[in-house]
């Protein structure tokens, strides 16, 4: 069976291209996030897995649960997903859509893991430095990780910069053992 992300990719691309053409990237981002959250609910998964329901009934049930959060175009998108038995892919579709959106907007979400709370000025300095290095707008999320002895661990997508004391000690131990 193909990976879920492989199956979700064309739907995410179609949603992204439509949203880009319509000039509504943020609106579609919110709608897909809502639909993905609904799709992950165990109760909804059980209801949609009922073999007695037609795809049209599944789509309508899903749309009813989402309420007014979905526009007419997003409801049509849900109907297409239901017809192709792909409603369970909504979390992956939303994630891939967000990656396309971030690339379009030249932005990246960065997680800073530190041993201690960082003040706003330090966070801003790190964000500015990363913005220059990555040549993108940086959205910083700071997380306190008590396992770090000091320093910072930066995660931006698949890029990881380990500036922590623990990471430096591990590199030193590795160099001494080789």
Please bin the fraction of helical residues: 55-70%
The rough form would be described as elongated
What do the pLDDT scores average to?
Answer: 86
Q: Are there runs of 5+ residues with pLDDT below 50, and where?
A: none
The percent range for strand residues is 15-25%
The sequence of SSEs as H and E is HHHHHHEHEEEH
CATH architecture of the largest domain: Orthogonal Bundle
CATH class of the largest domain: Mainly Alpha
Count every beta strand, where a strand is a DSSP E run of 2 or more residues.
4
Number of helices: 8
What is the total number of structural domains? 2
Characterization of this structure:
This protein is α+β, with helices and mostly antiparallel strands and 178 residues long. It has two domains: 4-103, N-terminal domain of the delta subunit of the F1F0-ATP synthase (Peroxidase, domain 1, Orthogonal Bundle); 107-177, 3-Layer(aba) Sandwich (Glutaredoxin), CATH 3.40.30. It has eight helices and four strands; from the N terminus they run ααααααβαβββα. The chain has helices at residues 4-22, 25-39, 42-48, 55-66, 72-83, 90-104, 120-134, 165-177; strands at residues 107-114, 137-144, 151-156, 159-164. It has a four-stranded mixed beta sheet with strand order 2-1-3-4. Strand 3 and strand 4 (159-164) form a beta hairpin. Helix 1 runs antiparallel to helix 2 and helix 1 (4-22) crosses helix 6. The radius of gyration is 21 Å and the shape is elongated. InterPro entries: ATP_synth_OSCP/delta_N_sf, ATPase_OSCP/d_CS, ATPase_OSCP/dsu. Belongs to the ATPase delta chain family.
